[in-house]
Amino acid sequence: MTGSVGRVKVGNLKAGMVLASDLKAPNGRFILAKGAALSDKHTRMMKVWGVVEADIEGTDDAEVQEKTRIDEDTARKGEGIASLLLPPGDDDHGCLAELRRLCGLRFTERIAAGASGSFPELEELHRPRADILRAGPDVDIPEEGVSPEFLLRQDVRLASFPDIYFKIREVLNSPISSATHIAQVVGKDPSLTVRLLRLVNSSFYGFPAPITSIPRAVAIIGTNELTSLALAVSTISVFKHVPPHMVDMKSFWKHSISCGVFSRLLAFSRRHPSEERFFLAGLLHDLGRIILLTRLPRMMTSLMEHAKRARRPLVESERAFLGYDHAMLGNRLLEQWNIPEPIRDLVKRHHAVPGAEGNDPAGETASGDAVLVHLGDVIANALRVGTSGSFFVPVPESRAWDLAELTPPALESIVKQGERQVREIMNVFLVF
Ligand SMILES: [Fe+2]
Ligand SMILES: [Fe+2]
């Protein structure tokens, strides 16, 4: 692709600007194809459909910033929110300061685009709080307390993991497996076929020419990535029926996909040989929280309030009240699903912050690899791309940034690349 691309707010779009990617409404409905030149009618239509911005060719972020001309008061509000979420401390690593700056910028943009500045996505995750509190006790809690086994035993649906992932793994493990065999298995699942083709043609892989057939896609992206995609699609379908009044799954997956994308980019920047594992681990990292939110809605509502009042990340309230956290619970669930150990390990340790071993009842400490998922989660939380329920961002210690060998300019470039990929992957996984 030639020329720069920038995200332009709908109010700043002009007739003649050229779309750098397909334009869709927030509900996923297709509006205009990449390459289309905008007319005044188009920009009016975009407002009607609730589109807030578009990728435009021949602009860059600096230009967009200038066009947006954000006033000082709005910028101060954005910075204020960033300092609340990521308070400056004695141990203020350069990367943390940079993340705070980027967080401030994103909130400033949202407020300038009309958001109230009151964290709408976060509030949405647990919308009818009063209903939940009125509904009576969560479950018949046994005398010995709410163990992870108790929570996982209760919901039979969680045990029924979709077949397609296991079928693909079976073919992969067979001595005669080939790209053609795998393509045949994938071809039987239309939803997987569509998602696979969308994914290989997205900026996540960044291939220059369009890929239009499944055997070609399998040959190009490789069998590991294909298994990952199958796992991702299968997992999202397992939780399709979670009632929206309990968890806003769209916001939850947005957070999970963001964590996966940022973790993968961090692994890529460290030249890690299995970057795909990081995307998956990020996608699955907070699954334990869905179990908690759906099985113990009342308790989790109180814990969310407690964490917010105490200005601590939600994971700490989970540990204080339950004796374990969603990372440990998620690992148990993935064990039941036979998810490979290296992925589970990253999930289990994603909150085991270096230097804070004492805070974790399981005694887990983050390995060099798990730090990347931890930071992916921190970035996703700080930019508030979706949410999994924690109001405050777990602030990483300096050692975590150093372990990831990250510098502030590298962080900025990962955030910019990541945000673009998150938008594309949301379209792959969440548009049905
Ligand atoms: Fe988490
Ligand atoms: Fe998370």
Oligomer: single chain
Number of strands: 4
CATH topology of the largest domain: Hypothetical protein af1432
**What count of helical segments does DSSP give?**
22
Mean pLDDT: 79
Approximate shape = globular
Number of structural domains: 3
Q: Radius of gyration over alpha carbons?
A: 22 Å
Give the helix proportion (percent range). 55-70%
CATH class of the largest domain: Mainly Alpha
* Alpha carbon gap, first and last residue: 29 Å
Order of helices and strands: EEEHEHHHHHHHHHHHHHHHHHHHHH
Instruction: Report the sheet with the most strands, covering strand number, pairing sense and barrel closure.
Output: 2 strands, antiparallel
The strand order across the widest sheet is 1-4
